[in-house]
Amino acid sequence: MDRTATHRCNRYREAVSLELDGELSQFEHAFLRTHGARCADCRRFRVDATAITQDLRSAPLEVPRRRVSVAAHRRRRIGVHHASAIAASMLVVSLGALYAADVGVQGQDGTPVRSTVRPAYFDSPEYELSLLRAAVVYNSSGRVIRL
Fold this sequence. Notes:
The chain is mostly helical. The chain has a domain at 3-58. The protein has helices at residues 3-20, 26-38, 40-58, 80-101, 125-134, and strands at 136-138, 144-146. The protein has a two-stranded antiparallel sheet. A hairpin with a 5-residue loop joins strand 1 and strand 2 (144-146).
């Protein structure tokens, strides 16, 4: 079955569901007639779905033996203290982002100035070696290997 036929069959099955619920448009009804005339699998699906739906709707309602109660969903409220803490943290994060991006820093001619400050460890291979020496590595047998 090619991809187009699969798409049409899926649309047909959705239309069958709408038909059983009484929500089928005229276009979808025409689609049911034309596709159903060509596709035996879809015709069989429509017959089966209609029979199952009729059986379910004609069956007597079951009364549960136990009482069923559903807990109400409580909506959490944000207190004044939480709201102010959230606002303050958002302000700190925003200011930090602005500072990190050097937004608003301009030279005398009005052009943006980018910071040329580099972290110290970029200029220090000894710093990186000290980090590697302090690292603990485990080999496959679980023994500690110090670098």
